[in-house]
Design a protein that fits this description.
- The chain has 566 residues and is an alpha/beta fold.
- It has 17 helices and 25 strands.
- It has an 8-stranded parallel β-barrel. Strands 18-19-20-25-22-23 form a 6-stranded antiparallel sheet, with helices on one face.
- The relative contact order is 0.10.
- The model has no long low-confidence stretch (mean pLDDT 96).
């Protein structure tokens, strides 16, 4: 076999050895994985994934986030992305666009089909003509109505072992999960008997048993199919929960890492440049393990600590916690980087702030969000206690006091300042559609559905949005400000995702970071204090205003400068 294939075989063999101890099972699984890769090789030959640069950025959106009467939502999304956002954003992250039964798309019925209410695969292809695409791969679980699970319940041999029914002696006392619902649910079989299955996220989201070789092969086939359909990035949703072992947390297990490394090896061989992004809403020390050695696991990892730390900085008027954390970030080299965001379809994850914020500081954020009309969602700890898992609120409403929401100038400046941090730090920025267009939260949608996360998932009427971009100072100011910063950022190599970062301590009123080296490097300074702040010891020409500063400056509240060094 040729050299690259030998390398792929070696890499897969090493990781399969982590998954299974039986030599016969190992040999067969390695052979089947290599065979599956060969089946997809020709279909992936045309994939041309672009490298990550300072021009790289992601819009996070559902397929139906923008609607227009009589038009497929994916077609409407394309008009917004192509004609309104344009080249300010390079890539589109499509949240699950498959048939589903609950959790706004994350209880997937069929991983290989497009939800007909959104459009079809042809709409996905058109969306990808001018922008890169990221697909969501919900690998950990499927809908209880999926053919896989229904087949398993019916005793169909094709799905034998696809789902995990723990033995009575399975020790689940240490399991860590983000829900308070039962860990195991019972389901009726067609013959009148019952079956039990592991359900990390609830009764309608049944965990796939990746320890079964046939199930792992099925998941791998789905992943490669997404690349063949035009995705150059694949997000591995909730991937940390994939592998179950008695007596453990069933989170971040070696088996989970081995599966991701198998997928990385196949991508490196079949689709160089295609990327895996892991979504693990956990404390930083656990999160960074998904980089592996920097070249054998995820290409990007969500920077989950950033949203609560940026929010804390503006709420407290003190950048100290953010500065201390950012200064200690690991050097990832040139093969892996962070996926940075402030808002998403979920809430503001609080677990990543454990050890970074004190209990009192965390509670202050909880109290603020609740006072602003949002909610706090909780999870069970192994000892039976509850802990705050996430804050459900739009990032705009978390940043701004309700009494100031009618002050468009203040809202715009605060939102842009927070996102200036997002756009300045090392990694690739991702902006949620409601953040890009300056939306407030949807209290009615949350309360009418009884789903906390619906507070930040409202569909936008496309034509009404276009009109509001002309008439609403808040929407217009945030959208034009963010897209301008994105375009300025795209022109300067200092903001490359792999460009060096040095965090500067210029006092608690500001967050400051030096990106790049030498001439052309950029010092970004953002005022979080809520009042004017004098900043000493910085010089350069501001990329945002062309103003020249020498030796220091005074930043207004929420002020931002990107000082290029010459």
């Amino acid at each position: 076999m040729p050299g690259p294939h030998n390398n792929l075989a070696t890499r897969i063999t090493e990781q399969v050895a982590v998954l299974h101890s039986d030599p016969a099972v190992r040999e067969r699984l390695v052979r089947d994985l290599l065979g599956l890769a060969e089946q997809h090789r020709s279909s992936l030959a045309a994939l041309k994934a672009t490298s990550l640069t300072q021009r790289s950025s992601y819009l996070i959106t559902y397929g139906d986030s923008f609607t227009r009467p009589g038009e497929a939502p994916l077609a409407t999304l394309r008009t917004i992305v192509d004609n309104v956002i344009g080249d300010a954003i390079s890539d589109v992250h499509l949240l699950p666009m498959f048939p589903w039964t609950s959790d706004d798309g994350f209880a997937v019925v069929d991983h290989r089909a497009i939800n007909p209410a959104l459009g079809g695969w042809e709409d996905i292809a058109r969306l990808g003509e001018r922008h890169g695409l990221m697909f969501d791969f919900v690998a950990n679980h499927v809908s209880a109505a999926s053919p896989w699970f229904c087949g398993w319940l019916a005793g169909d041999e094709r799905y034998a072992g696809y789902f995990f029914s723990p033995d009575p002696d399975f020790d689940a006392t240490h399991v860590v999960r983000p829900r308070t619902t039962p860990l195991v649910h019972e389901y009726a079989r067609p013959d009148g008997t019952t079956a039990t299955a592991w359900t990390t996220f609830g009764a309608d989201q049944v965990d796939v048993n990746a320890a079964t070789p046939a199930a792992l092969l099925e998941l791998t086939d789905v992943l490669l199919g997404y690349l063949a359909a035009g995705a150059d990035t694949v997000r591995l949703d909730a991937i940390g929960y994939l592998w179950k072992e008695s007596g453990t947390t069933c989170l971040h297990r070696p088996g989970t890492h081995a599966v991701i490394r198998i997928w990385r090896a196949i991508l490196d061989d079949l689709a160089p440049g295609a990327r895996l992004l892991t979504e693990t809403n956990v404390p930083h020390a656990d999160n960074v393990t998904y980089f592996g050695d920097g070249s054998n696991e995820a290409h990007m990892v969500y920077q989950f600590a950033l949203p609560p730390l940026v929010l804390h900085s503006f709420v407290s008027g003190d950048s100290g916690r953010l500065t201390q954390w950012a200064a200690g970030l690991e050097d990832l080299g040139g093969t892996a980087t962070w996926f940075n965001f402030l808002a998403s379809h979920d809430g503001i994850g609080m677990r990543p702030s454990n050890g970074l914020l004190t209990s009192a500081e965390q509670q202050a954020l909880v109290d603020r969000v609740v006072a602003h009309g949002g909610r706090a969602s909780y999870a069970h700890e192994p000892d039976g206690s509850r802990s705050v898992y996430e804050l459900n609120v739009s990032y705009l409403d978390a940043l701004v006091d309700p009494a100031r929401l009618d002050d468009a100038e203040q809202v715009v400046s605060r939102v842009l300042a927070a996102h200036a941090i997002l756009l300045s730090v090392i990694g690739v920025p991702a902006i949620y559609y409601h953040s890009l267009f300056g939306s407030s939260h949807d209290i009615v949608g949350m309360e009418s559905s009884g789903i906390n996360r619906r507070i930040n998932r409202k569909q936008l009427d496309a034509d009404a949005l276009l009109a509001e971009l002309e008439t609403s100072p808040r929407r217009r100011g945030i959208f034009t400000g963010l897209t301008r910063m994105l375009r300025v950022r795209a022109e300067h190599a200092a903001f490359n995702p792999f460009s060096p970062q040095r965090v500067l301590d210029l006092g608690p009123a500001v967050f400051a970071v030096h990106r790049g080296e030498g001439i052309g490097s950029v010092v970004a300074v953002i005022n979080v204090s809520g009042a004017a702040a004098a900043v000493a010891g910085v010089s350069g020409t501001d990329l945002l205003t062309d103003a020249r500063h020498q030796g220091g400056l005074t930043l207004p509240a929420d002020g931002v400068v990107w000082l290029v060094q010459d």
